[in-house]
TrEMBL record:
Residues 193-239 form the HTH cro/C1-type domain. This is HTH cro/C1-type domain-containing protein. Residues 143-168 are annotated as: Disordered. Pfam families: HTH_31 (PF13560). InterPro entries: Cro/C1-type_HTH, Lambda_DNA-bd_dom_sf. The lineage of its organism: Bacteria, Bacillati, Actinomycetota, Actinomycetes, Kitasatosporales.
């Protein structure tokens, strides 16, 4: 409903966040029909352990920890007051605590005994069972999912306030995106064969300003991005996601499927461009075998919507941060689920096939 902020819940099976339906009626407990069936098979004893552990609970938390740690490091470098430093540290510590619980649950899902967990955690088996029972872990992760959903609600540019650790993490993400945007434009410039002076003459921009854009010191406006990209025979659409992130623009939570897919694909192609468009074999080696050359080609070519494991591996291989791209991937995933609820059958986003998350 227009003007109403969506509410998120955590899937009882895979723990992924999903958009909860509004209005009367029974609320959904699972993000998809598939997860509901898997949970039923698990209760019936028919679900294999390896299938249950396909989505590590700790992976997402580790990605968010990376952004929070970056905010702490930024605060330290800036010489901010000790009160602010400790507030940042508290954010990291709380997320580490969530991660420990998720890591234990991942291990238990993989068949690790309580005795092995206790040895790894350096506690007794009784303490481990008491501290991390599955029901308590799920409740804690559900609470965390609500906290993270609240953080990602705004759809306008975010400006960090005093002591706003999440805002600082988003500011860090904007700085990273600005550097990537500059790298992408710099690559297109080098490929064009034009000198900086020639670019300045054709765009009415100063040579020093152009150089600062290429180095990431200045974040250009969208008209400037389009002018430079077109001058270099590039596609401005490939730079749109980097531009939005560089300006701290958080996309709305709901999109039509084609729009959400286009945003994700633009972000991935933009990172590939910022990395100098390395050959797919080079990307595969950087991903350490997590992606095949064919999968990389299909993802960057817009023929396949990757699952999160593939997306994170590709982003990392291209020198990006998975936490920065996660909201765009979620927009595709959740929009797709909304179209399937209630599902008439398995659907596919237009002009692309989707890998399961």
């Amino acid at each position: 409903m227009a003007g109403t902020s969506p509410r998120y819940d955590s899937c009882r099976y895979c723990q992924e966040r999903f958009t909860q339906r509004s209005g009367p009626g029974r609320k959904r407990e699972y993000c998809s029909i598939d997860c509901r069936r898997k949970e039923q098979r698990k209760r019936d004893g028919r679900l294999e352990r390896q299938e249950h552990s396909a989505l590590p609970l700790g992976r997402r938390i580790a990605e968010d920890l990376q952004a929070l740690a970056a905010a702490l490091l930024e605060a330290e470098y800036d010489g901010r007051p000790v009160k602010e430093l400790l507030r940042c540290a508290d954010e990291v510590a709380r997320e580490v605590d969530y991660y420990r619980a998720a890591a234990v649950q991942d291990a238990r899902n993989q068949g690790v005994s309580w005795e092995q967990v206790a040895e790894a955690a350096r506690v007794s088996a009784t303490t481990a069972r008491t501290r991390w029972p599955e029901s308590r872990v799920k409740e804690r992760l559900k609470r965390r999912a609500g906290e993270r959903a609240a953080v990602r609600q705004p759809s306008a540019p975010l400006m960090p306030g005093p002591g706003d650790t999440e805002g600082k993490a988003l500011s860090q993400a904007a700085e990273r995106a600005s550097v990537k945007l500059g790298s992408a434009l710099s690559y297109l410039h080098r490929a064009s064969g034009l000198t900086v002076r020639e670019v300045a003459d054709q765009t009415s921009l100063s040579p020093s300003y152009i150089s600062r854009i290429f180095s990431g010191e200045r974040t250009p406006t969208w008209p400037v991005v389009c002018t430079l990209a077109e001058l270099f025979d590039g596609d401005p659409a490939e730079l749109s996601a980097l531009f939005e992130s560089a300006h701290g623009l958080v996309p709305p939570g709901r999109h039509a499927i084609p729009d959400a897919v286009a945003r994700l694909q633009a972000a991935l192609r933009g990172l590939h461009l910022a990395a100098g468009r390395p050959q797919f074999g080079v990307v595969r080696r950087a991903a350490r075998g997590a992606l095949s050359t064919q999968a990389i080609s299909e993802i960057l070519g817009g023929e396949m919507i990757p699952g999160w494991e593939q997306t994170a591996a590709l982003v990392t291989a291209l020198g990006g941060w998975p936490a920065d791209v996660r909201p765009l991937w979620e927009a595709v995933h959740y929009t797709f689920l909304l179209c399937l609820d209630p599902p008439e059958g398995p659907g596919q986003p237009p002009a692309a096939r989707s890998e399961s998350p």
